[in-house]
Specification:
This protein is an alpha/beta fold and about 350 residues long. It folds into two domains: about 130 residues, 3-Layer(aba) Sandwich (Rossmann fold), CATH 3.40.50; about 160 residues, Response regulator (Rossmann fold, 3-Layer(aba) Sandwich), CATH 3.40.50. The chain is built from eleven helices and twelve strands. The strands form two sheets. Strands 2-1-3-4-5-11 form a six-stranded parallel sheet, with helices on both faces. A six-stranded mixed sheet has the order 7-6-8-9-10-12, with helices on both faces. The N and C termini lie far apart (about 75 Å). The structure holds riboflavin (RBF). The site of riboflavin has 19 residues, from helix 2.
Length: about 350
């Protein structure tokens, strides 16, 4: 009797485990690992990556998303991404910033089947990695052009100066090779004598340090600054708002944080790009070319200048609006082309 019950329970267990594994086969979802190299909140490119992935998961029941927020300590990213890749069984890993392809390249050597998609970066020659770089030169050129026009205008609190500002968190090749030169060249197309007042915070979160640098910039007679500082940008906005000076903002729609201070915003279409890439990967589309680097910009619809906001149309002087919109139109329709090459 005891012997018989053993056989029965064995058969029962066997049938359960068989039915489990067949369910798994039917329900095997397309699995996406999202690696945030930093903190999501307050950091535009990461917020867009995160939100795109979450929205995809809502819209596509067969796509499963796992997100790892790796934090600000950059020296831990490679180890954290290695564990992330090792533990899960991702069909693709998607991440974003210009430093990530190197890290994915190192990890790819030990995980030969893992595919990586990295936005906001440029990297060629690894058949496991596809990269997409926004034409940041275009965005910065327009913001620099606008900054110079505002700084030479008769708006309230404008002082006579040849200086425009740029406050950044950290220096990196995309910044020094394209973002800053684009900004200066855009400004110098208005006035060739314009100079840059350039400040580096040293991290992506120190609001007080950002505020101090912004105040000292304002004391140095700067009327207008650009800012790429993630969550530390709050400090820059506060200082410029308090002094009734002006900001042109890279990457995202920030107008509402300081109407009348933030006069122009660029927009990286990272949300649209990430959604599209995950769907393409899910469909195994040949549009994603591993081993290659793509550069995408305004003409392709992956970058914009947000001139349809009421905060822009209410506060930016009308004569400057006309000039900005003419430049934007020329870039969108291909009359003006700013080429970017590799990083
Ligand atoms: N941008 C952010 O807004 N927040 C960040 O925490 C952040 N971390 C970065 C870390 C590294 C190592 C690099 C190279 C870039 C980082 N960026 C960050 C910049 C971001 O990827 C993007 O290039 C800029 O925002 C300009 O569009």
């Amino acid at each position: 009797m005891k012997y018989l019950s053993c056989i029965i329970s064995f058969l029962l267990l066997f049938s359960i485990s068989c039915s489990n594994s067949s369910n798994e086969n039917i329900e095997k979802k397309f699995s996406v690992g999202v690696f945030i190299p930093g903190v999501t909140s307050g950091n535009p490119t990461y917020e867009m990556l995160n939100n795109a992935a979450l929205d995809i998961a809502k819209e596509y029941p067969n796509i499963e998303i796992k997100i790892l927020e790796a934090g600000y300590n950059q020296s831990q990213w490679e180890q954290k991404l290695t564990s992330f890749v090792a533990q899960k069984n991702f069909d693709i890993v998607i991440t974003s910033n210009p430093a990530m392809p190197e890290i994915c390249n190192n990890i790819s050597k030990n995980f030969k089947n893992q595919k990586f998609i990295v936005t906001d970066s440029y990297y060629e020659g690894n058949s496991q990695i596809a990269t997409y770089m926004f034409n940041q030169y275009e965005q910065s050129f327009i913001l620099g052009y606008a900054a110079a026009l505002i700084s030479k205008s008769d708006m309230k609190n404008i002082v006579d100066t040849k200086k425009i500002g740029f406050i950044v968190s950290q220096e990196f090749p995309l910044l020094s090779k394209y973002i800053i030169p684009g900004y200066i060249e855009g400004a110098q197309s208005v006035d060739k004598d314009i100079e840059l007042d350039y400040r580096v915070i040293g991290n992506w979160y120190d609001v007080n340090k950002a505020l101090g640098l912004a105040e000292s910039m304002i004391k140095n007679n700067v009327n207008v600054t650009a800012v790429i500082a993630g969550s530390a940008s709050v400090g820059v906005i506060e200082a410029f708002k308090d002094a009734s000076k002006y900001i042109v903002f890279n990457d995202t729609d920030e107008y509402v944080k300081a109407p009348g201070t933030i006069l122009l915003c660029g927009q990286l279409e990272q949300y649209k790009l990430v959604k599209q890439l995950i769907i393409e990967a899910f469909n195994n589309s040949s549009n994603i070319e591993y081993g290659k680097a793509k550069i995408i910009g305004m003409k392709d619809g992956y970058l914009d200048i947000l001139t349809d906001s009421k905060y822009y149309s209410n506060y930016m002087p009308k004569d400057i609006q006309i000039k900005i919109e003419a430049l934007v139109a020329d870039i969108k329709n291909g009359n003006i082309i700013f080429e970017m090459n590799e990083l």
